[in-house]
Request: fold
Amino acid sequence: MSLVQQLLLADVRRSAWANRNLLEGCALLTAEEMERDFCISHANILSTLSHIYDGERVWLDCLSTTADLGTWRLPQGPAPEYSLDALTQNWPELWNGFGRWLEGQSESRLQVELNLQLPGGIERRFPRWKILRHMLEHSTMHRGQVVGMIRMLGHLPPAVSPMDYYLAGEPAVSA
Reply:
């Protein structure tokens, strides 16, 4: 496995670890706390977690497509809402899916450009590695928002930073 693949796989594993920690921390909150409207991100903790999950689900679908299938279209319309139990149950398979996908890629396949249609009819070509990096950064940004919401509730948020992951010995995320 190339260094590029190793780095991307390490980032995927760290992101999965951070998501898992966030889910475990959110399991300690009340339903009212999970659904309190903070007027930021996707209004509340549960909706923001749903958005992170759905974004990861959609981008894995995109990455799994092939350039010869034509333009991949970002789904339109309202995104599904998930319960915390559904997220806790379904997210590990998604994390494993990213790992399996990435392990099956050569460095040259990570550079293959896919044609994407984004909201507003914008069509652009992006290499797979940039799509994966976007997904990872998107999840990181929204995790930070959830951490802020947890702090606003007066609770100590779970560890989600890269340094926390490294200090924890880069633990594996199991399904």
Notes: Residues 3-167 form a domain with the Four Helix Bundle (Hemerythrin (Met), subunit A) fold (CATH 1.20.120.450).
